[in-house]
Amino acid sequence: MTLALNIGLVITSLLLIVLVLLHRAKGGGLSSLFGGGVQSSLSGSSVVEKNLDRLTVFVGLVWVILIVGVGLNIKFGG
């Protein structure tokens, strides 16, 4: 159980870093490298950007749940 929680935590941490870096900010971000910057600047908030937001929030919630699981495992498990 501990190994599965730790592996899930590492995977979600790396995925969360990538997803946050893909978001478009004032400077354009990494999403402009993949062609997302042009489309986003024309329409304001595109469907791709909304889906990226939803995916980032979902991965963030999974990450928080895994953090709580690891903490509970350290406190009560062995």
TrEMBL record:
Pfam family of this protein, just one?
SecG
User: According to its record, how does it sit in the membrane?
Assistant: Multi-pass membrane protein
Its GO biological process annotations read: protein secretion
What GO molecular function annotation could you give as one example from this UniProt entry?
Answer: protein-transporting ATPase activity
UniProt keywords (A-Z) are: Cell membrane, Membrane, Protein transport, Translocation, Transmembrane, Transmembrane helix, Transport
Tell me the domain of life.
Answer: Bacteria
Q: Identify the GO cellular component terms for this protein.
A: plasma membrane
UniProt lists the family membership as follows: Belongs to the SecG family.
What name does the UniProt record give this protein? Protein-export membrane protein SecG
Q: Where does this protein come from, organism-wise?
A: Gordonia malaquae NBRC 108250
Q: Which gene encodes it?
A: secG
